[in-house]
Amino acid sequence: MKPIRPLAVAAMAAVVLLAGGVTSASALDASDDPRKTDFPVDTGVVAPLSAHPQYQGPSVSIPAGGFAFAHVDCPSGRVPTGGGGTTSSTLTFLTDSTPTSGGWTVGVKNTATFSASARAWVVCTVP
Predict the structure, then answer these.
(1) I need a surface site. Which of 2, 73, 86, 105 has the fewest CB within 10 A?
(2) pLDDT of amino acid 127
(3) Which residues of 49-87 are buried (b: 16+ CB within 10 A; e: fewer)?
(4) How sure is the predictor about 24, in pLDDT bands with cuts at 50, 70 and 90?
(5) Beta carbons of 88 and 39 less than 8 angstroms apart
(6) d(CA 109, CA 103)
(7) How many angstroms separate the CA atoms of 110 and 121, rounded?
(8) What's the CA gap between 48 and 119, in Å, rounded?
(9) What is the rounded CA–CA span in Å between residue 62 and residue 70?
(10) What is the pLDDT of residue 23?
(11) Nearest-CA neighbor of 35 among 107, 108, 115, 97?
């Protein structure tokens, strides 16, 4: 009986891992994915007691197949040190995430056949 070579074992392990990854990726792209819950109406400070509080901007509606920008400003006297965005659907994607002179802006593409929403958030600090 011949011994199994390490390269053959590694190749088989890679095939098994890749096959599992393909199945997982296709499961994430299912058209029947549940919608995320809507954002809370409150648009205030997210972490008021931290040294660098986070602020959320207003919810922006994006029509089916559309694109929009969501923006949030830091309060007066503070500067942005980081930020990002959230979406209401697994079929809505952030395409841009960038600081502005006083806040944060995200670009959002909705690939769904229904309208969705997005919101920018920013971390602010005293300069």
Answers:
(1) 2
(2) 83
(3) eeeebbbbbebbebeeeeebebbbbbeeebebeebebbb
(4) very low
(5) yes
(6) 20
(7) 18
(8) 18
(9) 10
(10) 42
(11) 115
Residue 8 neighbours by CB distance under 10 Å: 9
Is pTM beyond 0.90? Reply is no
CB 117 within 8 A of CB 60: yes
Q: In one letter, which amino acid is 59?
A: S
Which residue has tokens 């980081």? 82
Contact 57, 69 (CB under 8 A): no
- Average pLDDT, integer, range 37-57: 65
SS3 117: strand
Q: How far apart are CA 42 and CA 121, in angstroms?
A: 13
pLDDT higher at 113 or 26: 113
Classify the phi-psi angles of 28: left when phi > 0, otherwise alpha if psi is within -120 to 50, otherwise beta. Answer: alpha
Provide the residue type at 48 as one letter. Answer: P
